[in-house]
Target: Aspartate/glutamate racemase family protein
Amino acid sequence: MTDEGRGQLGLVVPSSNTTAEPEFRAHLPDSVTVHGARMALESVTVDELDAMSDDAARAAELLGHADVDAVAYACTTGSLLHGPGFDAELEERLADAAGVPAVATARSVVRALETLDAERIAVVTPYTSDLDEKERDFLEAAGFEVASIDGRGLAANTAIGELTPDDASRQVLAAVGDAEDLDAVFVSCTNYRSLAAVEDLESKLGVPVITSNGATLWDIGRVGGFERDLDGPGTLFECDSQ
Model:
């Protein structure tokens, strides 16, 4: 962040993602601009996610040419695909390539849940069952109890991008039910338009609700030095960054 209060955020996203950039933009002041670099991905499958990660460092390097203040790898399953530790390695790789701090969505989600002191969580996704299981394994390895995980079975990322915040809200309410035994709910996928549903869901469920883009935005604000400029929804953005 410059002395004038201006900032530049670098966002590494799958090529078929149409949600991350507008959701980030909606909760940033005009003085903080968002600049995207894309990695090829049409379907959210293990093979395509694995191939996509090979493009991550190059995308971050190109964002570094724009003198961004920080870089986010905005893909949840793409940053947890290879299990515990891959998310941290990815952050290091991108930081080295761009020459600025970097965050990866999977690691950002863990940091957000830890900040909320969440232990027992429910997870809602648009994914197929194989990716749901990889996500469950990752979150459990990170120390969380996954009470339930509910997926929509979608692979085409454009189909995921067509979902609305109302779709997310309905899925969460149907999947979670009584949230009294939960510490938080996590809505996964940076292409799932769900950030606008957070405040209403929190009021209905009585527990914090985080989304992939919400956690990533909160985290890059922390490392990029513009956390005070964020106007994100829900309990997470009311917390002090760790």
